[in-house]
Structure formats: structure tokens, C-alpha cells
Amino acid sequence: MALGKLSVGAEFNLKGAKDCPVTGAKLPLVIFSHGRGGWFGANHDTEEALAEAGFIVAAINHPGDTTNDSSRRDTLPVWGSRPADMVRLLDFMLKDWKDRAVIDPAKVGFFGFSLGGYTGLALMGLKPDFAWLAEHCKETSGTCAQLHNGETLPDPSQDARIRTAVIVDPAPAVLTRKNLAAVKIPFQFWRSQFGGPGVGDGTPVARVAGWLEGKPEMHVVPAGHFAYLAPCTPEQAAAVPRICTDTPTEFDRAGFHREFNAAVVKFFHEQLAGGDQ
């Protein structure tokens, strides 16, 4: 059934079963963090694949950094507010959600795309290197200007309840070999060969991949950054071609997502459900 229309550049129906009963016990939970200027359904097909595979899935809009709210976008505070948002989401799901009893609190995973990828790494123990960013940052507005003006930010929230993660093309601006070494939990890492807004031409995230310790499961996709977003409807493609047009143009996003979603589900099953399908 259609739960209602959403407007995120173009209107489309979000399908689902409203207020359906939750069955099962000791179910794993995966929380989702969207990218810069995104929204909670930016990876809706991946969320749906996990839900259909027996996971509880929860996603939110990060206040001030969504498709329809840019009030905090590209500012220094958003680097701290995003991890805090996810801690609050996890608190709600484990302590206040009406069906919280079905969740196994020892089986919590995280999925983050782009700036959401940074968000996950921070929650997993990474402390962003703002001194490095201030030294190399050339922008004259937003985060760079605030850093150059001497503004600071406390270390972002961490959350030991997260046991594993899928990190997808993370925003690399504050990632270094040293702070990545603080991340000790297992995770799956995806990057795009050609990059895009927020991640450069693919080289910065490739460099990040080379710094990762512990040999995480690694995937490189011969496409641009936005290939990881859910395949677009024709209406979305017409309204937001920047998001929906792939690099190279002949890249089959829908076909890739069948493989991507299967790999993500398999990884979370292995990490959180003991490999049971």
C-alpha cells in the first residue's frame, strides 16, 4: 500500500504496511544515516531489502541537513549533531519504541552513505581531525570559515551499542590514517571509482580505503557517488537529474542495486544473525 506522497525533489509514493504487527523475537536492528542534503528514504530500496530479510530498520532525517531543510548544512556543528542524532534514534528504538521488546540490543548495525558514512565512523570511535581540515580547507564559508575563525567542536558522540556497520563512500574531509585506526568493530566498506559531490573524484576515498586497518570487506564500484542512492523513478530523473544521472551514463544502477542490496543483507546476516538466512 502507499503510505502517502513525499516530495524530495519529485513526488513519489512510499510503499509499505502502516502499523503492521511486528513478529519474531531477538531481531537485529540496523539504523540508517543519509548523506548531505539527503533524507531518510534516500536508500529506501536497501532499507526495504533488510526489512524483508527480517531486520528491524530505522532511519531519520538529520535536522538541518536534509532535502527540505538546509539550515545547518555545511556548518561545523553538523559534524557533531549527526552522530548525536543517531544516538537519540538508537535510544528511542531500544527504550521507547512500542515494539522494542522484539529487538536484540546486542545485534545493532549501522548503514551510512557519504556524510552518513562519516557519521558511522564517528559513532564507532573516530575523532574527526578538524586541525587537519582547517589547514587544508580553502573554502571561505561554512565549516572552513568557522574553523579559520577559531571555532571548535567537542568530540562527537560514540555509541558502543553499534556492533557492525556498512560504510558507503564516506565524506573524507576529516578522515586520516591516525583517527581511522580507532575504529575496531567489523564493517563493510564501499567506494565509488569516480566519486562526486562531497567525496572528490574518487581519489580521496580510495586513499581512505588504503588507510583502513583490519582488512575490512572492501568493494569498489565503477560508477559515481550517487550510484549508491536508490534507483530513480522517471519523475525523479526528470526533476533531479544531478542525482539520477550516473557516471558513466550507461551504468545500470538498478542492476547494481540488486547486487549491492544482496551483499549488504548477507554482511549484516553474518555479523548480526550468525549467518542464518
From TrEMBL:
InterPro entries assigned to the protein according to its UniProt record, in alphabetical order: AB_hydrolase_fold, FrsA_esterase, UCP031982_abhydr
Pfam families to which the protein is assigned, alphabetical: PAF-AH_p_II (PF03403)
Keyword Hydrolase: yes
Keywords of this entry: Hydrolase
Recorded GO MF terms: hydrolase activity
Family annotation (Gene3D superfamilies): alpha/beta hydrolase
Database matches in PANTHER family: DIENELACTONE HYDROLASE DOMAIN-CONTAINING PROTEIN-RELATED
The name this protein goes by in its record: Hydrolase
Native source species: Bradyrhizobium zhengyangense
